[in-house]
Amino acid sequence: MELGLNSKDLSNSASFAGNWILIFTILVTTIIITTYTSLKRSEEDHLRFNYETDMILQIVENRMNNYESALIEARAFVKNSKKFSRKELELFIQDTEVFSRLPGLQGLGYSIMIKKEQKNQFEKAMRKDFGTFKIWPKGFREIYSSIIVLEPQDWRNQTAMGFDMYNESTRKKAMDQATEENRAILSEKVFLVQGGERAELNGFLLFLPHYKKDAKLVTVTDRKNALLGFTYSPLRASELFGALFSEFKMMVNVSIYSQNEDTSNHYYTFSQNGYKPVLSSVKKLNLHGREWIFKFSDLPQFPRSSSSLKDFMVFTTGCLISILIYVIFHITRRQMHLAHALAIEKEKLLQREKEHVQTRDDFLSIASHELKTPLTSLKLHAQIMQRAIERKDTNQFKPEKISALVHQVDEQTNRLTRLVDDMLDISRIRSGKLRIEKGLVDLNELIMDVIDKLKPQFMNSIHELPKTIFKSNIKGHWDRFRIEQVLNNLLTNAIKYGNKKPIIIKTLQENNKAKIQVIDQGIGIAPGNLEKIFERFERAGMTAREISGLGLGLYITNQIIKAHGGKITVKSIPEKGSTFTVELPL
Ligand code: ADP
């Protein structure tokens, strides 16, 4: 019993721990999946972002290389024209349709190098073709450069004609570098002179040196000596990049700087919206002798895979699935437990059914034996009498013989009556019809009455009447007939199982209760059978052949005492004897 309780507790605590382990495992798995998918999405975003930014760098680089190609084409034309004239270059530039081919290119021109002694003559010659031409800004310098061609000839570019770029340090630096390295070189940030509106014309220039034909260009000095001028292109940052980035859908924002991220070096920012970016990076691009800095960040239209909403949804979905798994698991386990409990219950019922069948079979065998014994005895006596009548054996008809015979018949019929009464009582108890009719009973007197009725059995078996130890004057309201039945059962058992040893019967009065004790020194009862003997048909392993009985006496006794609001208990030591105690309310 105790073991069963403990194992149930253990299984309960095991399933409790199991539940927590399950919840913990599911939760950890959900967190891992959420983190993993979140990382994967973020990784995807970074890859996409990196791809987009690399693409922008590539586009800018390609475009700048295209501009360089345009300069190279123009220089090739100048180099190879037999008699180079300003007009021819203008026509060449117009013919190549370079401005429609390369959107964002705002100008393509030629700047010639003029030594101080050539300046006046040069200006005079130029004015033949270009009425107001002069090298500007004014001032005396060792060497001048002068823009002589700048296409397209719109109002802005016309204002730049004659401008001495070599006089301005940023441009000079780029021109010198281009001369020395014999390649196209970008200037740092300059304010272009076209249009005169400085703030608007934030930009840079691309210079390609033009040397004397067939000159030796091995050393820097060779190149400086051979320098004739530059094909060049002025580039306004906002127009160049604006045109460039309008050609495709920008997913990322970009800010472009020359050299470093100082605001004074800022060329261009694609979008100035107030969006707070999530992804950002800074990349450098080496372009024609300059290092440009590109600061990238994502725009709202950037297709970001990662989002806290998605993470939340994955986590919530995970949690919901987890709860679902848990509920299914829980229900399944409960159903399994229920099925298991039902199987056990069924097993118990089957076992009980088997026991009932066994008990019924035992009862039938015992009952038939118990009924047969007095009937056999009665039949035997009838046969003896029949034979005596046939033989006319007068000896058998003597009064003492007849008296003995009648006594025997009476005893056997009494036994049969008791058996039938017991069975009827059982049926009454089962149908709840055992009626208790209470009246004032003197307990000691009733006991003496029962002893008197059982006198022949006492004398036959123990050869003495039971010893009585009575508390005087115990009276209560009980059913006399039923209490007599109780005393009869207990004393009969004491005789049957008492090993022919003396019996004591005590009465006591305690706490408003009357107590009757029947003490024998007989075979006793094994501890395991102490509770069982009060059940129906229970004979504690006794067979009818050993000691006769139906196993109903103590059951009926217990029911009668309970019906009176009392109780019966037994203490017993095998082979030492038993004490049955009955308590009845007064
Ligand atoms: P029965 O005596 O007809 O078997 P009871 O219900 O009176 O039925 O008793 C049930 C069983 O209890 C008996 O079969 C017997 O094994 C045991 N028993 C009853 N009284 C005693 C006793 N005084 N000493 C030993 N065993 C007893």
Beta-strand proportion: 15-25%
Rg over CA atoms: 64 Å
Assign a percent range to the helix content: 40-55%
Ligands, ions, cofactors: adenosine-5'-diphosphate
Count of DSSP strands: 17
What is the first-to-last residue Cα distance? 36 Å
What characteristic shape results from the CA principal axes?
rod-shaped
Number of helical regions: 14
Largest sheet geometry? 6 strands, antiparallel
Overall pLDDT confidence: 89
As residue ranges, the low-confidence spans are 1-7
Please identify the structural class as seen in this structure. Answer: alpha+beta
Structure, briefly:
By secondary structure, the protein is of the alpha+beta class. The protein has 14 helices and 17 strands.
Please give a structural write-up.
This protein is of the alpha+beta class and 586 residues long. Helix content is 51%, strand content 19%. It contains 14 helices and 17 strands. The strands form 4 sheets. Strands 1, 2, 3, 4, 5 and 6 form a 6-stranded antiparallel beta sheet that branches. Strand 7 and strand 8 form a beta hairpin. Helix 1 runs antiparallel to helix 9, helix 9 packs antiparallel against helix 10 and helix 13 runs antiparallel to helix 14. It is rod-shaped. It starts with a helix and ends with a strand. The protein binds adenosine-5'-diphosphate. Adenosine-5'-diphosphate (ADP) binds next to helix 13 and helix 14. Adenosine-5'-diphosphate binds next to helix 13 and helix 14.
State the main characteristics:
586 residues, alpha+beta, six-stranded antiparallel β-sheet, five-stranded mixed β-sheet, 14 helices, 17 strands, 19% strand, binds adenosine-5'-diphosphate
